[in-house]
Amino acid sequence: MTSKPKPKPKCPTCGKPAIKQDNAFFPFCSEQCQLIDLGNWLTSGYSIPGTDTPSAPDDDHPENN
Predict the structure, then answer these.
(1) Which residue of 1, 10, 50, 61 is 20 to 30 Å from 44, comparing CA positions?
(2) 14 with 40: CB under 8 angstroms?
(3) Within a domain: residue 59?
(4) Residue 22 lies in a domain
């Protein structure tokens, strides 16, 4: 029985191979890709699509609860 070779990890930013050994920026291939990803998080570049949920009942108006 032969085992399948493990897929080489790819940088999530650019898709280039990301070497784990001696790479302080892993899973990214470089500091530049790591900073691009961080910038996307900080500027809300990443988001999960969804629907608006109804707001909680208004405690100031008990007749609406």
Answers:
(1) 10
(2) no
(3) no
(4) yes
